[in-house]
Amino acid sequence: MVQVRVVGVAVDVNAQPVVLLQPLTSVDDEERFLPIWIGAQEATSIVIAAQGAEAPRPLSHDLMKSMLDALDASVEQVEVTRIDAGTFYAEVTLEGPAGRQILDARPSDAIGLALRTGALIWVADEVFEEASIPADAARVESEEEKLAEFKQFLEDVDPEDFQG
């Protein structure tokens, strides 16, 4: 298992949200990220939790945490356990009065809950090996970088470039 942290949420070229996970320790000589495509609502929830912010009303992951607190249970860890035909699978390990329980979960829900509870996030070695990408490929330009690049284009453009 590879322990990871949430680096952030990005949007791919098709405007689909992606959560990027980075190992806490180097897996090999090359820095790598694990991208997991998620839904827009889950992306919003993960971003809010990663920033330590609170939504005006409880989101689903906030409700899950409140329910666990009310039941005197805690999240021990979450694991991205496998990938099958491009679909990631995860598990949430709970500890409470009923003992240890392992629940099937979508990775986005497991990650959203882990961020709210401070639980560790793990990825199976096989999943990381199969689906991780080099850090360079995961680089996401900030809005400031995109704006600076566009401004540079405008400064360098020559009206004659557009004549037929």
TrEMBL record:
Coiled coil location: none
Q: Which Gene3D superfamilies match?
A: Bifunctional nuclease domain (3.10.690.10)
UniProt protein name? Bifunctional nuclease family protein
**BFN domain mapped to chain residues:** 1-135
What is the native source organism of this protein? Ruicaihuangia caeni
Q: Which GO terms describe its molecular function?
A: nuclease activity
Domain of life the protein comes from? Bacteria
Q: Which Pfam families match?
A: BFN_dom
Family matches, as PROSITE patterns: BFN (PS51658)
InterPro entries in the cross-refs: BFN_sf, Bi_nuclease_dom
